[in-house]
Amino acid sequence: MVTISFPGLGIEPFTVNKVAFSIGSIEVRWYGLIIVTGIILAFAYAAWRAKHEGIVFDDMIDMALVIVPMGIVCARLYYVLTTLDEYDSLYEMIAVWNGGLAIYGGIFGGILGIFIVSKWKKLKFTKALDCIAPGVMIGQLLGRWGNFFNGEAYGATPAEGSPLYFMRMGLQHEGWSKEYFYQPTFLYESLWNLTGFLIINAIYKKKKFDGQIVLMYLTWYGFGRMLIEGLRTDSLYVGPFRISQLIGFLCFAAGLAALIFFTVRTRRAAIAATADGSLTESSFSALAEDMTADNEKTNESEDNENGSQTD
Question: Residues 138, 41: contact at Cβ < 8 Å?
Fold first, then answer.
């Protein structure tokens, strides 16, 4: 049981149970339920977007069967390898239902899974990444509420009078003598991902090149995680460095650089495609949309050919 309050928001102390329900001696925890819900909603979104990318539903099923296990295993492996001194047995290392999934490990495992299935199914890798990336944000913004029920992923005590003081969260685990106040960094990250998802989803159909959406995701998430991680008290460290903050910065910097590079390259290619070399701003957008539509038609043809060879 965990007692939580948000006095700055007028929310008095209330108690949450980490266990949602039990089946005999088996405890089903909120953390696990929320993670599973996030995975289901992420898949539903990706499957919906896949239609616009010329990827058939059966291919998305195959992709999910590879990505989900690889993502969970890599997320847990990443977390365990950075906290090895906390475990006394193999059982504790695999007890994912107690919490302990590192998103960067999950992202790496997911990207590897997408690459494998894309090669196997002869799908365009960047199209698959684009339709899945916003769904990952859905999983992330929900997954942070699993941390809420576990009473974890919080930041240092906010200074009285600071801009975020009104957001302070009171927390008292069983065995604690009193309530302590922290930054609800799980909430900050959930809201950051929600905002990013709404923005990226709104401009999805206006993307100028394949891979733009996944690069926007990496840039947006990397920037937010870099800042929010600096507030946390339970960061994973490698030496003196907060590893998630460092990786967040690298994702932000690399993603932004790649976005600029490919946007400029796409613009130059569109201009070069005109007969006289001149292109107005409005006609550039129209040409970019035509190029994307042509790519989708080509992809659909390839999918139809491949579909006749698939069970």
Answer: yes
> 102-131 pLDDT, tens per residue?
888 999 999 999 999 999 999 999 999 999
Rounded CA separation 299/289 (Å): 15
How many distinct structural domains can be found in the chain? Answer: 1
- Tell me the residue range of the domain where 143 lies: 2-307
Q: From CA 68, how far away is CA 47, in angstroms rounded?
A: 14
Phi then psi for residue 155, to 5 deg, are -110, 180
For helices 57-81 and 30-52, angle between their N-to-C axes, nearest 10 degrees: 140
Contact yes or no for 140/110 (Cβ under 8 A): no
Q: Does the pLDDT of residue 303 top 90, yes or no?
A: no
d(CA 128, CA 214): 9
Q: What is the DSSP secondary structure assignment for residue 208, as one 8-state letter?
A: S
3-state secondary structure of 12: strand
Q: Are 134 and 200 in contact (CB under 8 A)?
A: yes
Residue 34 Rama label (left phi>0; alpha psi -120 to 50; beta): alpha
Secondary structure of the chain: what % helix, strand, coil (to 5)?
65, 10, 20
